[in-house]
Write a structure and sequence with these properties.
The complex is a heterodimer of chains A (288) and B (374). Chain A is of the alpha/beta class and 288 residues long. Chain A has helices at residues 44-49, 91-97, 117-120, 138-146, 172-177, 222-234, 276-279, and strands at residues 20-31, 34-41, 57-62, 66-71, 82-87, 104-111, 124-130, 154-160, 181-186, 196-197, 214-219, 242-245, 261-262, 265-266, 273-275. The radius of gyration of chain A is 20 Å and the shape is globular. Classes of the chains: A alpha/beta (288), B alpha+beta (374).
Chain lengths: 288, 374
């Protein structure tokens, strides 16, 4: 005999692991081994619905190669064309580097916690970036330029290993014109370099900050960010006013794969942008 | 024989052979039965057809790094503790194809994998494992995002839980209050007595599954004997995990010298994470055909003990075994609380039994406490 109860209908839910198809619209070489890929979502409805905040990232998928987390480096005011500044470092990025305009890429996103633009309004902003760490901060700079009156003094402290590794150098003049104070340094100069030589945190000695009204946003190698935090704290800037963007291995970006854990924090969900005070006990812990 | 069906929350007594009728009822309703069976000297969880597949007359002896099956004098269907498998294999499959891709001329089309997830009836879910399912519910269904693969399987399951009548030497559920008595959402909860099963009805579906089983209402005497059986198991549990001061005691001792001592024994083999009923980490595998015209993506279980787990360009965040064991234990007993409001440990003892060198997290935790920095 058959029973009175039957199986509940399985519910169809959207799978957050399925990428949307996007097309490469343009590729802009930025520095040695680094290019910005401008992507447009192929589905017009998806493209129209897409919006991101400065500091958020997408998962870019290449069939057979894999998937990686890349922050959006373009203007949040122009979310139809999404810039992703990529360094050719691993399997996926090298495969991406062989693609051409018109080729397809998988895209999921945006994910993650953005930079605190609301909190930054009315304050002085010190943006500190090392190497490709400027990519997730570029949307901050472009957002500031759109509403320059909403912020106080805005300073960019930026450095890379060599002059050839500096990103977005063609935009620095426009940023300066927009009343952003740009300071640039390199670890190692070449024969044509006439700028500063030294590590990024030393740029703090070229500016004056008012600790009560200053917000720090920093992204770069962890060792650089440690010394940025050191310099900021030395200037009496509160731990709660220091924000950093962290990098960890990520497979899913939605908190299921476990790879990006940093103590209690899932970098994909609570990060990548984190308030320093929220991770202080773990930051800089050896092999953590 | 009582007519009709028992009401929810009632307890009934059925002859042992009647469990086959419960199985038949479940199968007639479309469930795929999964339960314990003996394979290669181990009680594993597999699809089962009937009572004859259950490990009748087998029991286990478990110690740190050791698992042996033995014959018992009293033939019981559920006279053993948990084996290496847990229900997560069915709710969160070890390998799951996510999608496939067909490529041509640099462009491609994506096709989501078709899922054939049967409605499972889980036969013999122990108290610790029922808690483990609730822990994974929080991971995959409790947050901003929902894992549709897990949710689909989870929403369809039938749970026939079993109160433990025997504990193994590696069990420590009592100290975590996750067992040995079954609590939580079950359809039926069974206690095995020498000649009958005492069954508590937990849901309408559970009640329906008892149709035509010649069930009778349990008497106070039956219920007393069932309670005694669980109490006997609880008395056998000697191992304990102290949970006071968690997560603080771990966060305060990330540089404790004891981590080096565990690392000297740990092989980083990942057995503990594979047998753990709550460990959820996965990675993805990408494969393509030789011509590069088709590719697919598969989600597979991963482990924080694998070196590549923390790989970023330029290296691994946790290159030492010390760092990886610390990550695992700190996640289980500290950061899990912050992330999901519950411990990542249910006291099943699998990680102790199946550790090839017998590392016991309850002992390691005590060592970290004893010499803890104030």
């Amino acid at each position: 005999m058959s029973l009175a109860f039957s199986m509940p209908e399985p519910r169809m839910v959207h799978d957050p692991m399925l990428p949307e198809r996007a097309v490469i619209e343009a590729i802009k070489p930025e520095a040695y081994g680094i290019s910005t890929f401008f992507l447009r979502l192929a589905d017009p409805a998806e493209a129209a619905a897409y919006a991101f905040l400065p500091g958020q990232f997408n998962m870019l998928y290449l069939p057979g190669a894999g998937e990686i987390a890349i922050s959006v480096s373009s203007d949040p005011g122009e979310p139809r064309l999404l810039g992703h500044t990529v360094r050719y470092a691993g399997n996926v990025t090298r495969t991406l580097g062989r693609l051409k305009v018109g080729h397809g890429v998988g895209l999921r996103g945006p994910f993650g916690n953005p930079w605190p633009m609301g909190e930054a309004a009315g304050k002085d902003l010190v943006i500190v970036a090392g190497g490709i760490g400027l990519a997730p901060l570029r949307p901050v700079i472009l957002s500031v330029l759109r509403r320059r009156d909403a912020y106080g003094r805005v300073v960019l402290l930026y450095g890379a290993r060599t002059p050839a590794d500096l990103l977005y150098t063609d935009e620095f003049a426009r940023w300066q014109e927009g009343n952003i104070d740009v300071h640039v340094t390199v670890d190692l100069g070449d024969e044509r370099w006439k700028g500063l030589v030294g590590v990024v945190p030393q740029l703090f000695y070229r500016i004056r900050v008012d600790p009560k009204r200053t917000l720090i946003m920093t992204c770069g190698p962890e060792i650089m960010m440690r010394f940025v935090i050191y310099e900021a704290l030395a200037r009496r800037i509160a731990k709660e006013s220091i924000y950093l963007s962290m990098e960890r291995n990520m497979k899913c970006a939605v908190g299921f794969c476990g790879h990006c854990q940093f103590g209690p924090t899932f970098i994909c969900k609570q990060g990548p942008v984190l308030k320093y005070s929220s991770i202080e006990p773990f930051f800089g812990k050896e092999d953590f | 024989m009582a007519a009709g069906l028992p009401r929810v929350s009632a307890s009934v007594v059925v002859p042992k052979a009647s469990l086959q009728k419960v199985f038949d009822n479940l199968r007639a309703s479309g469930f795929t039965l999964v339960g314990p069976t003996v394979r290669e000297g181990t009680v594993v969880l597999e699809e089962i057809a009937g009572l004859e597949d259950l490990p009748l007359g087998w029991t286990d002896t478990q110690e740190p790094g050791s698992y042996r099956l033995q014959r018992t004098r009293q033939p019981e269907y559920f006279g053993f503790a948990v084996g290496p498998h847990s229900w997560k294999s069915f709710l969160h499959p070890p390998r799951l194809k996510l999608f496939s891709v067909e490529k041509n001329n640099g462009d491609w089309t994506l096709r989501a994998a078709e899922e054939h997830a049967p409605a499972y009836a889980f036969i013999g879910v122990r108290a610790c494992d029922l808690h483990a399912i609730e822990v994974q519910d929080r991971v995959f269904m409790g947050g901003e995002f929902r894992d549709p693969h897990y949710a689909r399987r989870r929403e369809q399951i039938f749970v026939l839980a079993v109160n433990c009548g025997k504990a193994s030497a590696t069990c420590f559920c009592a100290s975590l209050k996750t067992g040995p008595k079954v609590r939580g959402a079950f359809d039926l909860a069974l206690t095995e007595l020498p000649e009958v099963f005492v069954i508590e009805v937990g849901s309408e579906v559970g009640s329906e599954a008892l149709r035509d089983t010649s069930w009778e209402s349990a008497t106070a005497f039956d219920l007393g004997r069932a309670a005694q059986a669980v109490q006997r198991a609880e008395r056998q549990i000697e191992r304990q995990l102290r949970t006071d001061d968690l997560p603080k005691v771990l966060y305060d001792n990330l540089d404790h010298p004891h981590w080096d001592q565990v690392a000297a024994r740990c092989l980083s083999c990942a057995n503990c994470t594979q047998v753990c009923p709550t460990c959820f980490c996965t990675t993805v595998e990408d494969a393509s055909n030789l011509k590069g015209t088709a590719a697919e993506r598969t989600r597979v279980w991963d482990s924080c003990f694998v070196l590549d787990f923390s790989h970023v360009h330029g290296g691994n965040m946790r290159p030492s075994i010390r760092a990886r064991y610390r990550q695992w234990l700190t996640h289980k007993l500290a950061s899990w609380l912050d992330q999901f409001g519950t411990l990542g440990c249910v006291g099943c003892g699998r990680c102790i039994t199946w550790c090839p060198v017998g590392i016991d997290l309850t002992e390691e935790m005590e060592a970290l406490r004893e010499k803890a920095t104030p």
